[in-house]
Amino acid sequence: MSLEYILTSIVVILLPGTGVLYxxxxxxxxxxxxxxxxxxxxxxxxxPAALASIIGxxxxxxxxxxxxQLLKYLGVVYLFYVSWSILRSGGALEVNDERKERTLPHxxxxxxxxxxxxxxxxxxxxxxxPQFVSPNSAQATSALLLHALVFMLLTFLIFVAYGATxxxxxxxxxxxxxxxxxxxxxxxxxxxxxxxxxxFAES
Length: 203
Fold this sequence. Notes:
Blueprint: H1 3-14, H2 18-30, H3 32-44, H4 46-55, H5 57-63, H6 65-87, H7 104-116, H8 119-128, H9 140-168, H10 170-174, H11 177-199
Helix pairs in contact: 1-9, 2-3, 2-7, 2-9, 3-7, 3-9, 4-8, 4-9, 5-6, 5-8, 6-7, 6-11
């Protein structure tokens, strides 16, 4: 595995997307441990896209408008749901000292769904992974799996770092309700905008 692949993966993962935003939101709202659950869920959500690219299912989404559109609009609906859940009482970005409102499995599940319901992730892996593995290699499939696992490990570690950074700001935020209110609106608006962007995405 090349250093180029690792560095490229790190740059890609560092770019703010739905997973990063969700992990940061949970870190701010619930603290470090729940942010780890969010990072873990987002990482697990990569598995279907990685496997799809390896076995060629992602190519079906690329060539089948119906399949892409179906998954896309499921993703749009879920992004709007996340936007709404951030604003509602007890949502992902509700900051208080009571941490039993939102269970860790629920946080993991939301992270999984955010990535599973994003068809662009499958297309990304379809275009990204083959660049670093020779198609003529006898171990091409194994190499693709290894590259996908490394990408997932890097994703988890970087997302945990994002969550840790956000959780460190939690005490500052919890004593400033107005700051929290603006953060909630900002995150909700961002997820809503991502939903609109995905709705107009082309296959």
